[in-house]
Amino acid sequence: MTFAGISLEHKQQVLGELSLIKQQFAAKNWFPGTSGNLSMRVGEFNPEAFYFAITASGKDKSLTTPEDFLFVDKSGRAVEATSLKPSAETQIHCEIYRLTGCGAVFHVHTIFNNLISEWFGEAGAVPAEGIELIKAFNIWEENAPISIPVLPNYADIPRIAELVEGVLNPAVPGILLRNHGIYAWGKNAFEAKKHLEAFEFIFEYLYRSMLLQNSTAPLTLDGRR
Questions:
Q1: How sure is the predictor about 75, in pLDDT bands with cuts at 50, 70 and 90?
Q2: CB within 8 A of 67, min separation 6: which ones?
Q3: 168: Cβ contacts below 8 Å, ≥ 6 apart
Q4: Beta-strand relationship, 37-42 and 104-108
Q5: Of residues 1 and 98, which shows the higher confidence score?
Q6: Using the 8-state DSSP alphabet, how is residue 169 labeled?
Q7: pTM of the full structure
Q8: CA distance linking residue 8 with residue 157, whole number of Å
C-alpha cells in the first residue's frame, strides 16, 4: 500500500488520537522542555513499506496546533510537503515498528524512568518482580519476573537504533534509554498508553522501594546505614 492509498478519514482519526494522548501526557508533565515523542502507524503493515504519524521536532507539547504532527515512511522521511521536521529519535520508532508491526509507539521523559535507567544502566536491564502492574503486559503468572532492557544514550541516534533488535522482547513492550526515557508500544494507541502507564508505575514503585529499604537499614557503629 502506498501512502496515497490510505484514506483521509484514517489519517484524521490517527491525528485525533495522537492529539488527545499528547494532551493527557502533557498534563502529567511527561514532555518537559519539548522532550518526548508520540507516533501511530497508518495503513496496513509491511516490514518493507509502512507509514506513521509522529510528533514534529521542537514543539511545545502542552499546546495544540496544526504543526504538531507529520507523516513519515519506514525510513523516517516525510511523505508530504512540509516544513516540519520529525522528532530526532524517529529512527528508533522506525525500528520498533519494523520489528514488531505494532500500531503505536510512545516515548516520554520522567524523573522516575531516568533515575531507574541510570541505576540499572550498567546491568543493561531493569528487573521487576511481583508488581501488580506487570499484568498490564498480559503476564498473569503469580509474582512474575520481567526484565526491561536499558540501552546506552548515544548522541548518534542510528547507533541506538541498531541496538534495538538485539534487546527487543515482544513479551515486555518497552525499552529504556539510559538517563533519557522509555519507549513503550502496543497494537494500538490504547494498548501503548496502557503499557506506558504500567512501566511508569513500575519505575516509581522500584524507586520508592529502594528508598524505603535504605531508610530502614540498621545503623552501623559509625552511624552509617
A1: very high
A2: 56, 59, 84
A3: 96, 99, 100, 149, 175
A4: antiparallel
A5: 98
A6: B
A7: 0.93
A8: 31
